[in-house]
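Hey Z.,

So I finally got round to the pyridoxal-5'-phosphate thing we talked about over coffee. Here's the setup:
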Amino acid sequence: METLTFRRDLSQQPKSETERAEILANPGFGNYFTDHTAVVDYSVDAQGEGSWHDARIEPYGPIALDPSAAVLHYGQEIFEGLKAYRHADGSVWTFRPEANAARLNTSARRLALPELPASVFLDALRELVSVDAAWVPTGDGEALYLRPFMIATEPFLGVRPAREVSFRVIASPAGNYFGGELHPVSIWLSEHYARAGRGGTGEAKCGGNYAASLAAQLEAEAQGCQQVLFLDQFNDNAVDELGGMNVFFVFKDGRIVTPELNGNILHGVTRSSVLEIAKERGLHAEERKITLQEWKDSVADGSLAEVFACGTAAVITPIGELKTSTGSIVTPAAEGEPHWKAIRAELLGIQTGTVEDTRCWLTRLV
Ligand SMILES: *Cc1c(COP(=O)(O)O)cnc(C)c1O
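And the result:
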């Protein structure tokens, strides 16, 4: 197993305690960043051998890139997203990071970027969170969002996989995503745009997929919706996912259904955790194709109980309505405590250390 020692450059004055306290009092999402960043560089030598090197912690700040850097022209970029949670005893933990390390490498293979040893991925998280531990929030529903990413830095305009690459991790304090109360969201059905297609990059976590989703997101906002749903129009209008969250359906007879990993959709860590928790709670989990027509029919015949979206940033968000150009599919009002609430509470409890971690999903960082 490859190990690299992270050199620490702590020369720059960190933000003052007062400034940090002000930020932590109302962090929002993705607005502020901690004092440092983790970096590991990759290059291919004259013999064609690639290696990761120069692992370091350095002050957070702008990246100097050559204007011809490949990432700026051909979009060779991938990323990850996970959180660090502060437990009651002050220790800091993260959730299933080995799944993120594995997914980063799945994305890397698809974007012709070099794979990063999982041990280096984990060390980068641990090093960064150790140095910036004061930035891990303590409030209910708050966490330090970790954003690992990999970019092609080689200055070269020819089209081929870059031979110089940089892996980095930045960290951003994240508040309680919905300020406590969870309101069902309205989502817009994208009928003209797709975020992924067969053989495309749908199951890679890459910036390009997000760029491709933005025109649809604008359409959604113009319709008063918060998110977009993408379908596979060439596969009976099968439900794929939202721009950045996986989708679940719960039926009154106890089935919980989510689209199967068909190459178009992202292998969400939250998705797989929800499936496991749901099974243990006695729900019958199915990973399969679910079409827009089935969604409509199951509302019409009264068999559908809940629809929700899930992902690391917002955990679980109930979907109240799917708006389309020809009408709306409204999720029926809940009868009693919905399953999504209980699943969400269990997941958050495990992450924040108030529910026993029987599946060894947590890894201690500090
Ligand atoms: C990151 C992401 C998700 C959610 O994945 P998690 O691992 O649960 O955070 C879902 N869909 C897309 C397109 C994503 O990029």
